[in-house]
Write the structure tokens for this entry.
Amino acid sequence: MDVNEYVKTLGEHARQAGRAIAKAETATKNAALVAMAEAIELAQPELLKANAQDVELGKANGLDAALLDRLELNPERVQSMADGLRQIAALPDPVGEISGMSYRPSGIQVGKMRVPLGVIGIIYESRPNVTADAAGLCLKSGNASILRGGSEAFHSNQAIAACIHKALASVGLPAEVVQVMETTDRAAVSALITMSEAVDVIVPRGGQGLIERIAREATVPVIMHLHGICHVYIDDKADTEKALAIAFNSKTQRYGTCNTMETLLVAEGIADAVLPALAARYKEKGVELRGCQQTQAILDGVIAATDEDWQTEYLAPILSVRIVAGMDEAIDHIRRYSSGHTEAVVTDDYSRARRFLREVDSSSVMVNASTRFADGFEYGLGAEIGISTNKIHARGPVGLEGLTSQKYIVLGDGHIRG
């Protein structure tokens, strides 16, 4: 099989199917999503069997424990996929939504209508549940999708694809609305991300190496974030108990997520009050601390932080700690080292909170809340395709609205321009 020809064919079919799904009624899309959920539930034995094959191959190929955990399906995770599809079905349909209608002096009405992007290519690793999530989100937002999962989840993804195609057929939608690549050839990725005549946007989900490659090689627009170097700044006007809870949760609730705090900034006026108590909590969880000289002077056993530490997304029980003079220095540090994902300030000073919100330029900025809330479900989006740190089109968690665009619409009644 010629990979380039194969991907070109997928693109042509997706473009044709995109017209069908773009004009599909909300009821039809919702029926397809519910049918997908039911098909996945009924096929649980087959899904688990296919996944077991992937897990065994993963072990044989030396995948580490974290990757094997992401790869593995169990009855609860299969049910979660089905539940997620039903949740997407319950969300409002953004397609066709009209906003901002206003009369112009000429008598015409001008506004905007929300429309699908067209064809979305999604490239991801490890987690087979992404196949169901991505298919569901793209379908509800009126887009055709081409999904390229990781080779380590090949059998799982194909089994999920069979459920999706069965569901699409049951409501009269073409199978090409959702296409899951049937090749593990890496050249297929290169073909997909440069096929601008058929694909409108690429969404990568995976490790740094994958995303860097796509950012470097893609000629199709990309919605992505590269790193999740998130900060929490504890101001000297912070409530101590709030500060302890937020800084602890932001780091330890889960280590391997992009919205986990990697650097803690503490105002020198409150450092003596909060750092010893925080260090004790982190020690209980086995978190390694790497700090500046002032941090080392307050806490025993802290490793000296280097400039590289401030630039590192650990995704592990490791935390960088820096004591700063105040908000000016905290904001300067964030401007220099942040990946633009999520930052939080803990303070009871209203003016400082407003200043932090205004001056920190990340996709999510929080006051007195854990960075772990930077998530589509927590934001009320129901589900997300990923997080975007782009400044154009979608920013932050990308849900249904982020998978659409807007066009101007004009209403007249025989109006002509004089």
